[in-house]
User: Fold these one by one.
Assistant:
Number 1:
Amino acid sequence: MIPVLDFNRFSSGTDRDGFVADLGAAARGPGFFLLTGHGIDPALQAGVLAQADAFFGLPLAEKEKVSILKTPHYRGWAHDGLESLDETSGQKDRKESFNIGYDMDPVDPRVLAGEPFRGVNQWPELPGFRDTMLAYYDAALALGVRLCRAIALDLSLPEDHFDTMFHEPLAALRVLHYPPATGAAGEIGAGAHSDYGVVTLLLTDGEPGLQVQPRGGDWIDVPHVQGAYVVNIGDCLMRWTNDIYVSTPHRVLRPKRQRRSVAMFVEANPDVIVAALPGTGAPKYAPIRAADYLQSRLDATYTETVGG
Ligand SMILES: O=C(O)CCC(=O)C(=O)O
Ligand SMILES: [Fe+2]
């Protein structure tokens, strides 16, 4: 149901056409696949999970210092219960997260001008945390951009179609911590939602909980393959492809033991115009700036005002 694709077939050149065809089928069907052979160093993956553990283990007062509520740029610590990914449910997600965006200089004119999403990251006082997070952000973004080459080919576009669209991106890296279930009725780790961006690259720690609901079907568990990425199509790419690709609802149940995950939301540069790609038929949606689309989606998710 959720296919496993080996990116080496594409990167090494041994089976580029086969990989592109399999990716295209997954993107049009379940909207989810597992990606092996992606080339991201397992030590970097382990490093980011270890830093996540160190951060979430800090006293509350330390985490409060980097609260996401202190900035309008969706960067920092989001406490347990802040978000409601299923905004229709009335249920708050039982998870905490730490988020970074494209790392910007505090004196960058766009930061000084207060442009949306052009902010600086907040950092906890933890040795190695900043370097590890930034190294992982760069590696995961680069993987996302390489994946976009295969996506371009699948859509009969030039392979480099998306290459220039991700150098100062809206992309966000989020480490997540789900505390163990208490057994209370109706608890949810992350409410049912689809992701907002282009593609999401998710690293999981082996503790079950993530489920997807392919269109018209029942909820199914996403298997864990050590070191592999759970890749899914986001709403922005669905819109961009004029609904040829599918972004699929997913959720996280409260886990038996604590659960960690690392989500890289690959997003384009703010000024990229998301308009029906060539060859995808009569446009169903009006063109929109990537930043405006993302803002509209984030506004619906946060249950407290960010940036207050
Ligand atoms: O933690 C997970 O496995 C998934 C998280 C997720 O879907 C999200 O943050 O968008
Ligand atoms: Fe998600």
Number 2:
Amino acid sequence: MTRNVLVIGLGLIGGSIALSCQKAPDTKVFGYDYNEKTRAQAAKLKIVHEVVDDVLKAASMADIIIFGTPVNATIEWLEQLKKWPLKKNVIVTDTGSTKGLIMEKGAELRECGITFIGGHPMAGSHKSGVQAAKAHLFENAYYMLTPLHNEKEDNINALEQLLKFTLAKLVRVDAHEHDHMTAVVSHFPHLVAASLVHQLDAEQKRYPMTSLLAAGGFRDITRIASSNPLMWKDIVLQNREELLSQLNLWLAEMNRVKSLLIGLDQSAIEEYFATAKEVRDQLPISTGVFYSTYDLYVDIPDYPGVISELTGYLAEEKISITNIRVVEAREDLFGILVISFQNADDRDKAEKCISKKTNYEMYVS
Ligand SMILES: NC(=O)c1ccc[n+]([C@@H]2O[C@H](COP(=O)([O-])OP(=O)(O)OC[C@H]3O[C@@H](n4cnc5c(N)ncnc54)[C@H](O)[C@@H]3O)[C@@H](O)[C@H]2O)c1
Ligand SMILES: O=C(O)C(=O)C[C@]1(C(=O)O)C=C[C@@H](O)C=C1
């Protein structure tokens, strides 16, 4: 029997889930977005099997409904859902970055006989919109499910059976613990990134050259300040309490830094950086596709055409690359070309391909 899946909200996350659900056998994926342009783009990009205009009708046929909407919009949809004529065994889930308030709605849905299991894939990007959707966005990332207490195991299994096609690591987490932990590793860092950009903005009014000097360090730490403002407005409002307590911890931490600077204690300052480096270097890699890189470093001679020559060899063998950049290219030195691939297999193939055609030295990080 065909399983009908309806995805509401076809942006980066909803679109990516819809693409991965299309890989599930005997599954028909329908999609709805309140933005007409997005619906048209989703149809053109084949993000779903069928884009629908009548969301209520599609919902009444759905076995699984997935919300890819901003978290405040999800709350509004869940309220409406209570009155809809849904299938008796329908399973409703979401992808929102916050879980506390959404699970309160989930509990209300249970009172109406509707199964709601919260979900949150811990991968994404500062990019948004349907054009950024990718089938493999969640590969290897943690995908948290926050079922209500006493949720039927069969319901959770049924949802997991579909979500396993995201190739994410599915884990079950309590909704409140979820909101605490994501405040630490995601929500609060977004506030810090935005605040650093505000600080730069104020500074460059007095020293206009400052922004020209924003190189790797500033760009790395503030990439996420380019994220969707509406989405983040919703997230920080829903997780306000946790964020206020993170902010207090941060202020205390900044006071510690202040004391270190005032105290001029060289070894304590070095220790501060050393401990941070140790913890940072040991972070496990569990991101989705955007920021897990499989890089191949190629020492290339610095002559015009060398990059197109190399990419040409890879194209001949149909090896796709996700990014390419040159580092340390100087006239008198070999440059290093860093080629990124989607997976280790593609990188291995590329290494073999390049070693057949050239004598350039290569290494992987
Ligand atoms: N961006 C990330 O890195 C990331 C990662 C994990 C989870 N999330 C969560 O996923 C959800 C979607 O985020 P995104 O990054 O895909 O955002 P997005 O802006 O790319 O997509 C949201 C989509 O929802 C549509 N939409 C907005 N309001 C709607 C409504 N009321 N009804 C129907 N459609 C509506 C928009 O038109 C858009 O197409 C959010 O809840 C977010 O918290 C985001
Ligand atoms: O990589 C990014 O740009 C993200 O911000 C992704 C990110 C994160 O903070 O890690 C953002 C929000 C999500 O709920 C999950 C993942």
Number 3:
Amino acid sequence: MAAISRAIRACAAAGSRRSMASSAKEVAAAGARAAAAVARRGREREEDGRRVQWVFLGCPGVGKGTYASRLSQMLRVPHIATGDLVRDALASPGPFSEQLAEIVNNGKLVSDEIIINLLSKRLEEGAEKGELGFILDGFPRTIRQAEILEGVTDIDLVINLKLREEALLAKCLGRRMCSQCGGNFNVASIDMEGENGGPRMYMPPLLPPPQCESKLITRPDDTEEVVKERLRVYHDLCEPVEDFYRARGKLLEFNLPGGIPESWPKLLQALNLDPGNERSAAA
Ligand SMILES: Nc1ncnc2c1ncn2[C@@H]1O[C@H](COP(=O)(O)OP(=O)(O)O)[C@@H](O)[C@H]1O
């Protein structure tokens, strides 16, 4: 991991660029192939001591953090969310955090250089603690970030979570965090007619326990105006990253069918993961 973080910094400095091919066809088949290959490689890696190196993509509010964090516990790898690294940097007062706040609170992306520095530092700290593998959440978000990552390490699988846009906005606006325990909750109750005759989508709220109720805070970038800007930025800058990995046969598209109880077992199935592993991880 230390080698990866050093290489990420070096590549970023060199400003590496490579061309990108995209193919919109056979998405489902490619996703299934990617998942099968991952299951096979996963078994080989466990034997040689290397754990998964996965990436989560998806619009703001889709639930990347929720599913990435559950999978990281199950697969015994760190869940590294670049949004969390940015929020940690924002929490230390000074000119750097003021500059970051201006960008983040307007729904823009921070520069590739800044994010790569934050990520490299996090990977170095992990290497010192002996961490193996990772699930990245919120990185890469630009083609340049994807190229830099590709230049320094192998990504096994990229999971692209998808949800209808109305649900994304409602989920971002309903997001709450407990300022004391750091727990994440969502007060939105989503119940939408199915699209094109499809099934109804129901996502119940994830309410806080009574001791957290009076300590809930909302992210300053979760206002309607800023969420709409973040969605626009996602479509412009981050969607090409989906094409980047699709062209490499690494993208697994997953349409969330509803809330966590409904979606989690289906995600495990799509990933060829045995729910029994979750129980043994929890134990
Ligand atoms: N890989 C990245 N590149 C640039 N900016 C990033 C990256 N990851 C996080 N950020 C910044 O941190 C903010 C919060 O990120 P995150 O918590 O992942 O938000 P979201 O809920 O929009 O997925 C982003 O809006 C962006 O300003």
Number 4:
Amino acid sequence: MYAGAAALEAHGLGMRYRRGWALKDCSFRLPAGRICGLVGPNGAGKTTLLSIAAHVLEPTQGTLSLFGAAPGVADSGRTAFLAQEKPLFRGFTVAETLRLGRELNPSWDQRAAEDIVRAGDVPFDAKINTLSGGQRTRVALALALGKRPDLLLLDEPMSDLDPVARKELMGILLGEAAERGTTVLMSTHVLAEMENVCDYLVVLSGGRVRLAGDVDELLSVHTMVTGIKEGEGLPSSLAHHPLVESRISGRQFTALIRPEGPVAGFGETDSPSLEELLLAYLRSPDASPLITPTAQAQERDQAYSTRTVAA
Ligand SMILES: Nc1ncnc2c1ncn2[C@@H]1O[C@H](COP(=O)(O)OP(=O)(O)OP(=O)(O)O)[C@@H](O)[C@H]1O
């Protein structure tokens, strides 16, 4: 594996389906060891990006590298992908599913996989097609974590789990990531949940990267301003600061800005929560994109073309 390389790095990544571009000119880097939330409205391109990283799809343009190598080659690290549809063999039992995982993965951790299944009281002799959606998710997550991956790609992993199972499996995921330095890239629509889980963020909309970087860094460069509106709109002096989103309710306005210099005399200022930041960007697809320095794609030389390198 390429020492010091980003866990994932995209350069000018594009994916075109028959109906048009699902991803366009996407460039960003995800440093190793981070837990990254991948956020965006329906159809933003999240599954497409995860599928390229998982070597399920070949990009139409640009490159994506994992630990400095193309997806699917030996140097790209161990990658596990938990897709939305959880592709398990429906006729297999849970035990047979884990056995297959063990046979296919030299670094397989049977105990970790079994513990996840057992914690949900899922019978090992039950066939996959007899399990509930949430139980299938648990088995699929056991299969993904049993691989001991360096990079875990999760596409809305917890959407069919009950709240208790969700919290428990998220805890296992975080414990695993902390213990082994696993990098996680996880698409989700549950913004409130991300606050305690993710320390990195990529926001896509319309197939383009709108926001990428360290969560603390992204929060620190935004300010939420609340005050009394001036005439029909925002105070004119606020126009000196790039605006992400503003909302007016009665006589009051709320604006999320990226302050350039002191923000005083408009009303109250506060740091946004992660949920407020995300909602503002999701509601304002025309806000200018922001990719923090740690998230800027760098290793052009080491970014291999998946089309030319992949076997
Ligand atoms: N196999 C395909 N063939 C044609 N178009 C596709 C295909 N897969 C995805 N698309 C289109 O590409 C765009 C991005 O889809 P994608 O599934 O990557 O979005 P997403 O962000 O994961 O959405 P969601 O939040 O709804 O899961 C959408 O416009 C979708 O209709």
